[in-house]
Amino acid sequence: IFFRVHAMPKRETKNYTPETAFVEGLIHDPFTFFCVYCSEFAIILDVPLEKLPRRKTDCAFVIPTPETQLHRNNMEEGDCKLLKREKGTERQYRWLCRGCKLVLAYRSTDFKDSGGALYLKEGAVTRNTAINLTALAEKTVNIPECICVTEIGVKVILNVTMGAPVPCTVVDILNKAVLLQVKSSIKKEIIHYLIEKFFATLLGVQETLVGVTVVQETEKESETSLAMQELLEADKEKVLERAVVIRTDIAPRLVLDKLVQSCTHSTKLHTTAATGSSDA
Ligand SMILES: [Zn+2]
After folding, report:
1. Quick check: is 24 in a domain?
2. Domain STEEP1 spans what residues (predicted)?
3. How do residues 114-150 score in pLDDT, each as one tens digit?
4. What's the 65 CA to ligand 1 centre distance in angstroms?
């Protein structure tokens, strides 16, 4: 499936997905991430986002050893920002999207220095080039397969993992599943309740209209590659397959928009004219 993606002005329209880029030999690893704003190729990681530790301060994904974990880096060096934190100041050397200059990541060490973790901003990159803020600004957009209309309402397929710094958060929206992450300390028994509450709040509907079910374990085709499938097999107990049904006549497009908004709430465009350090 090819998604038609409009890049930023003055840039050519691209037609690719992580999968086709992988097949074309552009990319040797399935964990390829694109800018959430313009779909420019950003980075290739050795693990999916949901396997990375999270930073408590800003929910950023932590890449502890970028020298070995970052298989490719297409980001460009930005400026250095000094941020006020509770315990003093923090220096951020920022990495930008090559296409639209959105701040995607940062390090606390200078660009020319090696060593030190790389922090990937929450909601700045996606594996799904059909989900970008530029495409979503248009009236028509492909609704991912994981959001569908059933007789009783809109159903959303979820892959739930642990490790979020907040009770419940959207990591990414793939074609086959919305990647949801919950706090590790959350007891298994209340995960369903937590997800119901999350969707009720997100969509502004009553909690009683939202129901979570366990997805029947079936032979499912991999969205990326064998490597990903093997990884999911190995961590099966950590990836919960769930479906959430919203029993109203809510439009799938609205569900998608709300999920994307939730996912990208902390991303904003970086402009060279921007001043100050309040945009942590
Ligand atoms: Zn971009």
Report:
1. yes
2. 31-129
3. 778 999 999 999 999 888 788 788 878 889 999 999 9
4. 24
State the complex-level ipTM: 0.99
Domain boundary among 126, 152, 171: 126
Q: Do 241 and 149 sit in the same domain of this protein?
A: yes
SS3 sequence of 150-197: ECCEEEEEEEEEECCCCCEEEEEECCCCEEEEECCCCCHHHHHHHHHH
Two tokens, residue 215: 């997805």
CA 256 to ligand 1 centroid distance, Å: 20
Ligand 1 centre distance from Cα of residue 232 (Å): 29
Q: Hey, how many other C-beta atoms are within 10 angstroms of the C-beta on 236?
A: 11
274: confidence class by pLDDT, cuts 50, 70, 90 = very low
Ligand 1 center–CA 172 separation, angstroms: 16
Given a contact cutoff of 8 angstroms between Cβ atoms, the answer to whether 177 and 48 are in contact is no
